[in-house]
Design a protein that fits this description.
The protein has 2 domains: 215 residues, Rossmann fold; 37 residues. With 260 residues, it is α/β, with parallel strands linked by helices. The chain is globular. The chain contains 8 helices and 7 strands; from the N terminus they run βαβαβαβαβαβαααβ. Helices cover 49% and strands 13% of the residues. Bound molecules: nicotinamide-adenine-dinucleotide.
């Protein structure tokens, strides 16, 4: 479906970003992957994707808190592949504390990585997309882009911000063949979340499934996690021709979290 197109997924060395990158690879898109991690493991992943899906894959170590590195990554993508067609803003971090205990440097880092990085990627990628009259921008927000939880002031502010950015970009590009949407996942079972559950089960001596249900039911009516692959499939759909008129919206994939 996306043969000949190029997708860039920020924060795609693990979790949801990696699953999204794999989903686009499966559709034949060339890839620019990005994120932190062990150098050899990233190279193994990069080469593995190239081989498995017969596509071209490059890796950018650009730090999403550094505007100059972000712009250089977009320029490198366009130069190496000839275009940047699908931009997925996924990189994100978290810190949990009451506002009076929230370190200002954590606030700055979360706003920079979870929100401002998308301003910089879109700003740099938009001229090429408008020129080619085709583009898909997909922002990975969160249920926390639509509703709040305590102890997550920076994350909730950044994710609400990304939903606003999504709407403005969609309006500006509405007649240029470029769409911009947000995906709002609830709990997604990534290695990090799995570790939290395993730790809770170890501490309480209760079965893992019991701890899973406890964690999920604090927020989600549905006692099941979304899988990273589910988010990848939704991103692929938003990049498809079938979604050409879907723009400026935030799509929940959250087991009913924000229905309450
Ligand atoms: P993760 O920690 O597994 O992956 C985060 C990725 O971002 C990694 O590749 C990491 O290297 C990269 N990254 C972090 N800081 C970076 C920086 N400064 N520059 C470049 N890359 C950087 O997390 P995840 O759970 O896969 O989360 C991915 C996105 O999905 C985030 O935006 C997160 O807020 C969102 N999300 C996750 C969940 C969930 O339950 N896991 C739910 C809703 C939304």
């Amino acid at each position: 479906m996306l043969k000949g197109k190029t997708a860039l997924v920020t924060g795609s060395t693990s979790g949801i970003g990696l699953a999204i990158a794999r989903a686009f690879a499966k559709e034949g898109a060339n890839l620019m992957i990005n994120g932190f991690g062990d150098k050899d493991a990233i190279e193994k992943e990069r080469a593995g994707l190239e081989k498995e899906f017969a596509i071209k894959v490059r890796y950018s170590p650009a730090d999403m808190s550094k505007p100059a590195e972000i712009v250089a990554m977009i320029e490198e993508t366009e130069k190496a592949f000839g275009s940047l067609d699908v931009l997925v803003n996924n990189a994100g971090i978290q810190h949990v504390a009451n506002i009076e205990d929230f370190p200002p440097e954590k606030w700055d880092a979360i706003i920079a990585i979870n929100l401002s990085s998308s301003f910089h990627t879109v700003r740099a990628a938009m001229p090429g997309m408008k020129k080619r009259k085709w583009g898909r921008i997909i922002n990975i927000a969160s249920a926390h882009g639509l509703v709040a939880s305590g102890q997550k002031v920076a994350y909730v502010a950044a994710k609400h911000g990304i939903v606003g950015l999504t709407k403005t970009v969609a309006i500006e590009a509405a007649n240029d063949g470029v769409t911009c949407n947000a995906i709002c996942p609830g709990w997604v079972l990534t290695p990090l979340v799995q570790k939290q559950i395993d730790d809770r089960a170890k501490a309480s001596g209760k079965p893992v499934r019991e701890e899973e249900i406890k964690l999920l039911s604090e927020k989600q009516p549905m006692h099941e996690f979304s899988k990273p692959e589910n988010i990848g499939a939704l991103a692929v759909f938003l990049a498809s021709d079938a979604a050409a008129s879907m723009t400026g919206s935030a799509y929940s994939i959250d087991g009913g979290w924000v229905a309450q």
